[in-house]
Amino acid sequence: MNSVILIGRLTQDPQASTLDSGHSYCRFSIAVNRRYSRNGENQADFINIITWDALAQNCVKYLVKGSQVAVQGSIQTGSYERDGVRRQTFDVRADQVEFLSRATGASATNGAGEAKPARDAAIDELKEVDDDDMPF
Question: Which of 42, 47, 74, 101 has the most CB atoms lying inside 10 A of its own CB?
């Protein structure tokens, strides 16, 4: 069984792209606190997340750096070669992303102190994602 549930905060704004096939996807990473601390210092793991199609569009539209999310999905592994060195990749392919809280302060603004208009729309406007719409 390959199932993951994580709660964390976005480390940067989501990055969106579209494949030649027309499927859109979104990548972001979240910082997930560990249960234990070392020498009284909290530690976090930084997990890469990928979403597809309608879920990806909603993540790009409503999430910003610092937003807290719950992610449910599965681990995907991959590999690539750079400078003759083989490297492994680990991502979580999200099936669901629950928006838990919005970022506050500078990360939720456009840099001039104004709220990002597209991200201020009501969250209840989100589209339902059907599993049959997933590309795999």
Answer: 47
- Answer yes or no: pTM beyond 0.90: no
Q: 3-state class of 10 per DSSP? A: strand
8 DSSP assignment = E
Dump the DSSP string for 27-84: EEEEEEEEEEEETTEEEEEEEEEEEEHHHHHHHHHH--TT-EEEEEEEEEEEEEEETT
Q: Is the pLDDT of residue 107 over 80?
A: no
Residue 79 vs residues 25, 51, 76, 93, 111: alpha-carbon distances, Å: 19, 19, 10, 16, 36
- Give yes or no for a contact between 100 and 72, defined as CB atoms under 8 angstroms apart: no
